[in-house]
């Protein structure tokens, strides 16, 4: 069988195609989730600003002095809104990002395990060397490891940022949008897109 015919039918190439196609899907969900966090964090910053402003109001010297429990009621309402947003970020958005991270890790591990089972000779096989249609096996495995590391790193950044967010740290809540913008720069950079572009011909090969 000629090298190209072998490349089209070899189980490693089949596994690689499935992995990269799944990566393309997972990456779209990853970007959607990161983008969906932005308005939630902006709301948290706004609430933190309102809470700080509330603490500065001298209700006893205002027309609202006839409502002595008003500051406490407003404070509870604001705190409840902050806690609800934080819960949505932790229980919904962070878990969605974790699912993407874990799904990519499982896929990459599956391909790596298959290559290990088939032996080191794969790398030197002509069908797995660089051609006009696809990169070499070594390149594609390296890129998959790069994407796995990328998701792991950004997920930890997001998790740390959200774990630090608290009703007790209003200044930190107000700073969240700016901190999140930095995370987005990492979380939506072209690492994965670059890899998918490099394998586009490989993915479309028969």
Automatic annotation (TrEMBL):
Protein name per UniProt: AFG2-interacting ribosome maturation factor
GO terms for cellular component: cytoplasm; nucleus
Residues spanning the signal sequence: none
Organism: Pogona vitticeps (central bearded dragon)
């Amino acid at each position: 069988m000629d090298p190209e015919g072998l490349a089209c039918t070899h189980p490693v190439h089949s596994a690689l195609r499935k992995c990269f196609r799944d990566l393309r899907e997972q990456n779209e969900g990853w970007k959607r989730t990161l983008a969906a966090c932005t308005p939630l964090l902006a709301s948290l910053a706004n609430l933190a600003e309102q809470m700080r402003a509330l603490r500065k109001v001298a209700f006893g010297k205002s027309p609202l002095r006839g409502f002595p429990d008003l500051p406490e009621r407003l404070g509870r309402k604001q705190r409840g809104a902050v806690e609800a947003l934080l819960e949505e970020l932790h229980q919904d958005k962070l878990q969605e990002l974790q699912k993407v991270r874990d799904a990519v890790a499982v896929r990459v591990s599956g391909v790596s395990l298959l290559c290990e089972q088939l032996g080191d000779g794969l790398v030197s096989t002509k069908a797995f060397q660089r051609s006009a249609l696809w990169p070499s096996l070594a390149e594609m495995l390296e890129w998959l490891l790069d994407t796995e590391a990328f998701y792991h790193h950004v997920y930890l950044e997001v998790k740390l940022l959200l774990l630090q967010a608290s009703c007790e740290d209003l200044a930190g809540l107000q700073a969240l949008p700016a901190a999140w913008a930095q995370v987005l720069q990492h979380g939506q950079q072209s690492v994965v897109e670059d890899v998918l572009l490099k394998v586009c011909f490989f993915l479309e090969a028969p």
